[in-house]
Predict the 3D structure of the following.
Amino acid sequence: MRLTRSLEERLVNLHRQNALVGGLFRSLGQEADAVGSAFAVEARDVISSLTRNLGSLLVKGATPAEVIRQHTASVDSPTRGRDLGLHFNDITRGYIGHISPLGDMVTVMAGVTLTFKMRGEDRVGLVYLGDGATSTGAFHEGINFAAVQQCPLVVIVENNQYAYSTPVARQTAAKRFSDKAPGYGIASDRADGNDVLAVYEATKRAVDRARSGGGVTLIELETYRRRGHAEHDNQSYVPEGEVEKWAAENDPIERFIRVLLDREKVEQGEIDAIDASVVTEIDAATDLALQSPQPVGPDALTDVFANPSRVQPHWYRNV
Amino acid sequence: MSEITYLEAIREALVEEMERDANVFCLGEDVGAFGGAFNVTEGLQARFGEMRVIDTPISEIAIVGAAAGAAHMGMRPVAEMQFADFIACAYDILTNYVATSRYRTGLGCPMVVRGPSGGYVRGGPFHSQNPEAAFIHTPGLKVVCPATAEDAKGLLKSAIRDDDCVLFFEHKYLYRRIKGTMPAGDHLTPIGKARVAREGSDVSIITYGATVWKSLEAADALANDGISVEVLDLRTLAPLDDEAIVATVKHTNRVVIVHEDTRTGGIAGEITARLNELCFEWLDAPVLRVTALDVPLPNAPALEDYVLPQTADIVAAARRAAAY
């Protein structure tokens, strides 16, 4: 969680220095959702993260340098400068990046987990959505398809109270997102999304259910998005004091530190050492990533198809 | 070798590929025990089991998305749209996800989305469409439209083995009206290669799908008038076979482009633009188009016949091109 937050803070600094290409999406206040849930799956399992799941990707093995390169759109970034932010894959590490129409990823992950079932592999899938994506047709089709096929899939709805500017009350008439599960005949669960251990435990239960043939589980994690949709968004639509209240009273990192200090009797020095090592790691990653060159224009020509592997440029580009 | 229908050729391709590669599987609405709305997948579930011929909910987004996810994991899915008209429901996932995945992330979607397209069957506005143009316009998707039974089989087998997503638009009018003798052995028709369906020297008709047959009828009629017509069956619409298109134009210097799809934004406009760019000096006449009218396809026989291109329309256009 500390790595997630500090890496995002570094990205904010780079963003303000105009060193990034495109918008920057934060997961401030939601780090426990991403990290706690990703620790509940195994290396062989496949997740599909959303834009506020930097922590999930880091748990699954993405490196800070890769993340920075994705944001600078360098030629050696995971998508070689072709897509933004957290839209990137590494299937060997077990993550498939989302696309902007996020509900689509439920259908893709239904297919990934259908394959696990067809092949009798001991693997599960985990797909993350926000509250907004539950309103899409793709969410409905994907979760229903996976339910009917008894796919080993966990669907996490990170209810952070806002889809861009739209509050939950304008997104659904359901009292809770987890209430949607019975309509699909699947299991459901809810957890405090800012309690990393509760997130882990709820996800682990669902992962175990999926692994043992129990099919799909829909988990609602209740949390709060403390920044705007992206950094350009001034959150003018948020009631006064709401962000500050969550920050003061319900910060997932502060809450976990209290657990470590009070219950687990961890020394403050150990926590300070983790914080220091995170800064060192991010400094090194930043130095490395900022050396990466940008792609050149004709790099855009390759890999639209496997075959032909290269698109021809227009004639006036060869004059 | 006995003749089999266009529909049986498609089924034969599916059976052969499923036997050859355990990663090939079918999914779609009513494709399993029922065998599909047109019986294309009849007998497949009994032969290969429920896990390889999967009946799905009525969910075109999920059918295509699940195929993409399975393709990522090394499977070779063949997804059926019960009617090609319904592929519009999956437009988002095809264009935003499937078409861009390899380019963005390196993770491709080797999959086939197949289904019956086309009219001349009194199917009305939702069971007769030719949706190819929207997808030809999308970089990252291949589009195939076979006209013969031989190509239906050979192109489907190639599509299943292709490392990219191939949209395979069968023509339902041809399902049981066209027969062919399958070449022996592993019959593969290359994607991206057009076929000269009839050689001629005065006018080229460039077409695909069911209108290949109407163009051949027109060529017969025109031969009686001493007009020699070459018919080029495109077979693949994306990527277009520019080489074959230019070759036939250089041969005849006059072109009529025929398609059953509506006119505005249809592929005839694209081919006309390419002719301008690639072989303008070789043209002795303006390029003419014979297409459907720009209206939703109506159901009554008189209306459908009026809207869709007919053999007489092609004859008239070819005469005009020849006389120019």
User: Anything to note?
Assistant: Chain B is about 40% helix and 20% strand. The mean pLDDT of chain B is 97. The first strand of chain B starts at residue 4 and ends at 5.
